[in-house]
Design a protein that fits this description.
Blueprint (H helix, E strand, L loop, with lengths): L1 H23 L16 H15 L6 H10 L11 H10 L2 H8 L10 E4 L6 E4 L8 H15 L8
Antiparallel strand pairs: 1-2
Helix pairs in contact: 4-6
Length: about 160
């Protein structure tokens, strides 16, 4: 995932250099690279959401998906546009992970889940809180996915 962030950082630097070169020549650059928006809170939030969309999706490694399902929960109340992606990844993940995420039983102290990426990597303390979910947005996202994929039901065949 760090290689994706580094790549994104290079893209941002390249866009900044292009914007500066365009400004020096008196040219207008596209909205994402516009001088007025690249350092604004809105511009930075848009880039953060774009990074999430690029790193957390159905094509991402399963380990990234699992950690993302836990770590992105706290962002859902403020970034409702992440619900369709979140629900799409959630319905494709292992039943064990779904059970942990959607359980109304609080994780007790000492029963936390730790997840790591192989040998020399970080351990992530994973916990779930149903208070982070908007039931209507979850249901709407689920309905949209059922229609998009043409499912007759959600049961496994």
């Amino acid at each position: 995932m760090s290689h994706l962030l580094a790549q994104k950082g290079d893209e941002i630097k390249g866009a900044k250099q292009a914007a500066e070169a365009g400004a020096a020549k008196g040219q207008q650059v596209g909205a994402a690279g516009a001088a007025g928006e690249r350092n604004t809170v809105k511009g930075n939030l848009n880039m953060a959401v774009e990074i999430i969309n690029n790193c957390f999706n159905l094509d991402a490694p399963k380990s990234v998906q699992k950690i993302g399902l836990f770590k992105l929960q706290c962002l859902l109340p403020d970034y409702k546009l992440l619900y369709p992606l979140y629900v799409d990844v959630l319905i494709q993940t292992d039943d064990e992970i779904k059970q942990i995420i959607l359980s109304d039983q609080p994780i007790k102290e000492g029963e936390e889940i730790f997840y790591g990426f192989g040998n020399g990597s970080f351990n992530y303390k994973l916990k779930s809180d149903l208070k982070n979910f908007d039931n209507m947005l979850m249901a709407n996202s689920l309905i949209d996915l059922i229609i998009q994929y043409g499912y007759d039901s959600l049961s496994k065949e």
